[in-house]
Amino acid sequence: MPFLQCLSHNWYLSVDMQLYLMSPLFMVALLRRRRLGYILMALCICGSSFYNFAITVMYDLVDSELSFPYYVDNIELYLERFMHYHESIYLKPHTRMSSYFVGLTLGHYLWKRGISKEKSNSKITLFFGWIITAALLWICLYVFYFGEPTLLRRALYNGTSDFLFSCVVAWIIFVCVTGQGGFVNNLLSFGCFMPLSRLSYCAYLIHYPLILRYFLTSLEEGLAKWTFNLMSYIFLHVTFWTYLLAFLTSLLIEVPVSRLFQCFSNKTVK
Predict the structure, then answer these.
(1) How far is it, in rounded angstroms, from Cα 260 to Cα 263?
(2) CA–CA distances in Å: residue 140 to residues 70, 73, 110, 153, 170
(3) Which of 77, 86, 207, 256 could form a disulfide with 90 if both were Cys (CB 3.0 to 4.6 A apart)?
(4) Are 166 and 141 in contact (CB under 8 A)?
């Protein structure tokens, strides 16, 4: 069971590797017959989304931690459905295909765009692109997160949220890479983010135990509502301690080990 393992959130690395090993099949299709490659990836995205939707309806699963406040009076039932959700949807590579193939599609399109040296998009295209992106982001962050977690809402969240949010991220990457991001590109390229980006992997390893601590504390204290102030408080605390511990971990482990590998590689080259 993943929750009984050390650093159990590293499940993502195995899922990512499995999808990575699958990617050459689709890359060959994209290079040989581009339309066929896009059709295959679209079918995988639809299949993955439909599976998540169907399995949620079939077993009445929760939508990750979003339903937790509504199960405060019946924690055992919530934990049972939560574990089933993790084992059936959250940890499986086939349920993560939509996000991966959105990224693969974007990467191939940007590669083709660079080869053909296409010009910038029109202002109308960019305007409607941002409108659609804002609408999708609003759906992911507002529609799915608020309101009573009915079975239909949970199924829609599990079935479409990954794909919709991936489309939002893909659009932001697209406009920034093509030099059309404007303020967003300037913000994401801000120099102060560079040191934090060097700590991203250590932060990934450390952040989950901190979040889990707050989650388990809320169970013990019986918090019935995740208010905005509480979420802001937890976010700031987790972010601060995550990057502080990530800095120490990188300084004591990651940097020395990478330097050792660098020394060995230099000797091998010589």
Answers:
(1) 5
(2) 19, 27, 25, 12, 15
(3) 86
(4) no
Return the structure tokens found at 122.
């029109």
In one-letter notation, the amino acid at residue 256 is P
Q: Give backbone dihedrals phi and psi of 84, rounded to 5 degrees, phi first.
A: -65, -40
Residue 96 contacts by C-beta under 8 Å, 6 or more apart in sequence? 15, 19, 48, 162
Q: Identify the burial level of 204 via C-beta atoms within 10 angstroms of its C-beta, where 0-12 means exposed, 13-18 middle and 19 or more buried.
A: middle
For residue 90 the two structure tokens come to 């959250």
The answer to whether residues 227 and 175 touch, using CB atoms and an 8 Å cutoff, is no
Burial of 131 (0-12, 13-18, 19+ CB in 10 A): exposed
Q: What rounded mean pLDDT belongs to the chain?
A: 83
* CA-wise closest residue to 204 among 8, 1, 5: 8
pLDDT, one tens digit per residue, over 142-172 is 776 666 778 888 899 899 999 999 999 999 9
Long-range (24+ apart) CB contacts under 8 A made by 125-131 are 126/175, 126/180, 129/171, 129/175, 130/171
C-alpha span between 228 and 234 (Å, rounded): 10
Q: What is the pLDDT of residues 212-227, one digit of tens each?
A: 777 777 666 655 566 7
* Residues sharing a CB contact under 8 Å with residue 110, sequence separation 6 or more, in sequence order: 174, 177, 178
